[in-house]
Amino acid sequence: MQANSGMHWGIDIGGTTTIIGYLKPDGFFKTATLETNPISGPDSLLKSISRIIDETDHAPYSAGVGIAGLVERSEGMLVSSPNLPGWKDYPIRGNLSSMLNCPVAIDNDCNVFALGAIESSSIPDSGLWLMITLGTGIGGTIIHDGTILYGSGYAGEFGHMAVEASGKKCLCGSTGCWEKYAASEALIDYYKKYAKHAIYISPKEIAHQASLKRYAALKAFEEFGTWLGIGLTSLYHCFSPDGVFMAGGLMGASEFFLKHAETEFHRRCTRTWKVNVLPSSSDAGAEGAAIMGRNRTK
Questions:
Q1: pTM of the entire structure?
Q2: For residues 147 and 236, what is the distance between their CA atoms, to the nearest angstrom?
Q3: What 8-state DSSP symbol labels residue 297?
Q4: Superfamily of chain region 147-277
Q5: Which pLDDT belongs to residue 2?
């Protein structure tokens, strides 16, 4: 029987991209970034992931998967994901474990990001903290004394908290969800509202335009920040946390919207604003997933 390699693999499956890497005693190493391409389905993506891992490691010790959506951890199942339409009740753990021939753990992508932040002491191991990721959607995690709180299984789905009861329709089936007003698609929509000839533009380009003091970009970030502040106010009222940690692809542009979020927060709430931005790293989710896989195979 072949001995395992000692390598713990981490996979971060987002609505747009998937990041793969491995954890060894001397650190985490990213090996690949793939287009998730949700329309091709989960089988196709898992086969690509398995092939990439096998090119480097024929006998993985473990693998961890963080994925955007509702995850049934005990069954290793992705229940549903608004950002991955059509991916429903899919047994990721079982299928990927068969492909890799090693134990596989799975959790929501924000939770595995939080695991990495807890491990590195970026998030304190005492107190009640909220973790929020901003990107294609909004992810959330509740952390108490260094432990993630799951409730009955799915706690932390802040992105699907309603902030506008009769507002925009969300793929989750509800209307007015926070992530319809304070995630990537919303930022692009705000920019198009203020710009005269915008056809396609990315959040990265909007941030560049904001750095040049362009009106449409600055106004887009102001509206984005206002909705962010509305949601944060509700979370403070519900949890009364010691503070909030924020991360994700959009936080690289936080200088353009976080001040507007704070202004809206103070307009609505008497609590002290304690919002911290975690260092940006595109592979932090995959590293957290690798840590999860390692911890669950100890």
A1: 0.91
A2: 19
A3: T
A4: ATPase, nucleotide binding domain (3.30.420.40)
A5: 60
